[in-house]
Design a protein that fits this description.
Blueprint: E1 2-7, H1 15-27, E2 32-35, H2 54-64, E3 69-76, H3 82-96, E4 100-105, H4 110-116, H5 125-140, E5 147-150, E6 155-159, E7 180-183, H6 189-197, E8 200-204, H7 211-224, E9 233-243, H8 246-255, H9 260-266, E10 268-271, H10 272-284, E11 289-294, H11 300-310
Parallel strand pairs: 1-2, 1-11, 2-3, 3-4, 4-7, 7-8, 8-9, 9-10, 9-11
Antiparallel strand pairs: 5-6
Helix pairs in contact: 2-3, 3-5, 6-7, 10-11
Length: 315
């Protein structure tokens, strides 16, 4: 099982904080370092020093790390035109030596759009689908050829379709591209997009007993279009709160303003044996990868605990 570290910098994290976490992620042997793509804090936190742009941050981290994969969970398609996003992702992929993954979604947080003057259309799956068509089209166009697109929401004319990512498209290895992650709990549209474009489906903060149902929808969507359901990676994102003993766990729960019982119900939480058991149960449900949401972004010992005490017991 892959374990990835996932943070929410809009809640209050400088670039230096994120760099420290990314370096710890790499040094401790985790598979990847991912961050959210939000511009406004949530809840009653002040969010100081303020938001950081995900792709600017990942570009910088690409030069400060050497092994871990880097990505967003998830980029909101409302924030960037697809042509510009294609350039940004391809550039960061080159800067990282081919370690980038793009998690992308329709966006949901209306307040951050209002706060920064970004349009937030009521219907977003149409633009999201077109963005995925444009992104994969630009990256997949052979060098020396141009890309044209005439959609309802976006039009591209005589694009040189440059730059290209370093990586190959996992779904079409003959052309350039990066792994695309699509997530959500919708019954039809999200599974269909995942079956068409994604190398990974992610269920973010699901009720744990619903995970097989969510994965089953994606598998069915793959079968409906003739794709092998086993060609996707199936992942979840869950909050992390662990401790070497009950007192340490309770301290970490208090630090993020959550109740221990609620964390045990909804996250990867508790003492070390509980963390191991939870991850084992997730594996039995078909989870291949877990994004551990780290909300206290100054607590590097938290990551060390998981790497030192939990990972060796996973087999």
């Amino acid at each position: 099982m892959d374990l990835r570290i996932f943070i929410e910098p809009q809640q209050g994290a400088s670039y230096a904080d994120q760099l420290a976490l990314a370096r710890a992620t790499e040094d401790l042997g985790f598979d990847a370092f991912f961050r959210s793509d939000h511009f406004l804090m949530m809840g009653d936190r002040r969010g100081l020093p303020g938001p950081t742009d995900s792709w600017v941050t990942l570009g910088a981290l690409a030069r400060e790390t050497s092994r871990v994969r880097l990505g967003t969970l998830v980029t909101s398609m409302t924030f960037r035109y697809p042509g510009m996003l294609a350039v940004q992702v391809a550039q960061v992929d080159e800067m990282s030596g081919g370690r980038v993954e793009l998690g992308i979604g329709a966006g949901w947080y209306a307040a951050e759009h209002a706060a920064y003057g970004v349009p937030f259309p009521a219907k977003r799956f149409g633009p999201l689908t077109e963005q995925l068509e444009v992104l994969t089209g630009l990256w997949g166009t052979p060098v020396g050829e141009t890309f044209d697109y005439d959609g309802e929401h976006y039009t591209l004319t005589d694009s040189p379709a440059l730059p290209k990512p370093v990586q190959r498209d996992p779904l079409h290895p003959e052309r350039a591209g990066v792994p695309i992650i699509i997530g959500g709990g919708g019954p039809a549209k999200t599974p269909a997009l995942a079956a068409r474009f994604a190398s990974e489906y992610n269920a973010s903060f699901p009720e744990k007993d619903r995970i097989p149902e969510l994965f089953g929808r994606v598998r069915a969507a793959c079968e409906a279009v003739g794709r092998d359901p086993g060609s996707l990676t199936y992942s979840v994102a869950l909050v992390l709160a662990g401790g070497a003993d009950e007192a340490e766990f309770a301290r970490r729960a208090a630090a993020i303003g959550r109740e221990p019982d609620e964390l045990r119900e909804h996250g990867v939480a508790g003492t070390v044996p509980e963390l191991v058991d939870t991850l084992g149960t997730l594996r039995e449900q078909g989870v291949e990868r877990v994004y551990l949401q780290v909300l206290d972004m100054t607590d590097l010992d938290h990551l060390d605990l998981v790497a030192r005490e939990v990972v060796p017991q996973l087999g």
